[in-house]
Design a protein that fits this description.
This protein is α+β, with helices and mostly antiparallel strands. The protein is built from five helices and four strands; from the N terminus they run H-E-H-E-H-E-H-H-E. It has a four-stranded mixed β-sheet with strand order 1-2-4-3. 18% of the residues are buried.
């Protein structure tokens, strides 16, 4: 459970975190359970190095918009944002790795959204 990461990785500092297709928790009452909510961003900040990059991949438009708004309010440095990853001219190898869910979403005609950011 991601809320326990700071207790588990007390002395470890990660340079990168990938959040591929998290549960979007669409209901308003579940907003604090989203992995890009301010509470989770604070947890990630505790276990990452200052220059760490966090990657979010999702097919969920609501989560994507929420993440962009939250990151702006959090004053995160957004490195890359796309609402259609595979329409890009060049997709780096690590961004093109597909999960089972991503493959299913693509088969269903959904677009894959990506945000790469730093917390500072």
């Amino acid at each position: 459970r991601a809320e326990f990461l700071p207790e588990i990785f007390v002395e470890t500092k990660f340079s990168e975190i990938w959040i591929p297709f998290p549960d979007p928790f669409p209901r308003k009452r579940s907003v604090n359970r989203r992995l890009v909510s301010p509470g989770f961003l604070e947890r990630f900040k505790k276990i990452t190095s200052p220059d760490a990059v966090i990657h979010l991949k999702t097919d969920d438009e609501g989560l994507f918009e929420y993440a962009l708004e939250t990151l702006k309010e959090y004053d995160a440095e957004i490195l890359k944002v796309t609402d259609n990853l595979y329409a890009e001219e060049f997709v780096p190898f690590e961004e093109a790795i597909k999960t089972k869910y991503e493959e299913q979403h693509l088969k269903d005609g959904k677009t894959i959204k990506l945000i790469n950011f730093k917390l500072g």
